[in-house]
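Issue: copy button drops trailing tokens. Both records pasted manually instead:
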Amino acid sequence: MKSAFWLTSLAQVGLLALQYPAGPQVLVGAVLCAVVVSLLWQVRRVMPVHVDMVLIMTAFGGFGMVVGGYAQPTCHHSWGGTVGMLVASLPPSWWFARCLQVPGRYALLVVDTVGMLVGMELGHRLAMGADPWLMHGAMLVGMNLGMTLRFVVPVELLGGGELGAGKLGESRR
């Protein structure tokens, strides 16, 4: 899984650079962000369990948005980008996110997915007309902030327990 993080994080930067050429400052900043996400995955066990979802969505979801965006190149945010993000990020989330290794995980995944889609759309609307790199970053930030919806939804609606509390735990894999 570690190498998959490196691959999707750096490929996301490379694919964006192919579609939207950028200056060296943007490229260096994007590569540094990809490196930080990949390194955080390696030490995530000492952080709250929901960090897994944030890292997976940033690496795999961001990569899926870029790949899916090639299906509709007139707009970085498109149905292709949304489908690509979901296809690329939900399977690794299901298997590797520690916060989804608890009873009630179906409800958690639904709440996270809805929050992610709403946050991504808000990020897109706020950055509309901006540089595609800024728009991609705004959508990633919005997507991850949208997943914090879980912490304001009453846990009883998610199946009870401490699902939203972010307790440390072990993953299946």
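Record 2 (pasted manually too):
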Amino acid sequence: MANISYITALSACAALLLSVGCAPQKAPLPVGEKVITAPHQELTDASLYFYQGDVKRWWLDTDYMSRPLADTGDITVAPVRIIVYDSLGKPSTRIASDSGSSDSKMAVFDLWGKVNIKNEEGMIVTGERLRWYKDARLVTSDTFVQVETKKGDILRGKGLEARDNFSRFSFNAEVQGVFPDFKRRMEEGDEDFLR
């Protein structure tokens, strides 16, 4: 009788092991690196155009874009390549940075990491972080920014407030400058001293 109990127990264990061993294995579910709380889009090699009426105002070209489907959160892109057009539809400003984001209404744009802006007059603006308020046509920064004119004038300072075409700008602190041919330009009354 003990022999039958032993054989029955052994058979039950063997059947259990066979059924577990032969059952299909479930693969672990993939887990994302970041927590996503709402559906969103991730696009590669994306272009985004913005028009006012029939006039193209700017064009964004990027390798990566992430945006929520509900159009209620920030749009993030990397890298940033933007061409801004004037009222006649001609390119007026080129903007590049490592990364950037915009609010859902595309009214405020943040650019960071090797920001470079060049306008049609040849002015070059560089910095690590800039913020563009589209409707106010205002550019600000709380970091160091350099502005270089076509004539070679270089101004650097911490904290920037400027018109978005850089026709006027001011620094908040630690301002420095280099002005080639300063004496001659002052003596000749160069009207375009800072252009």
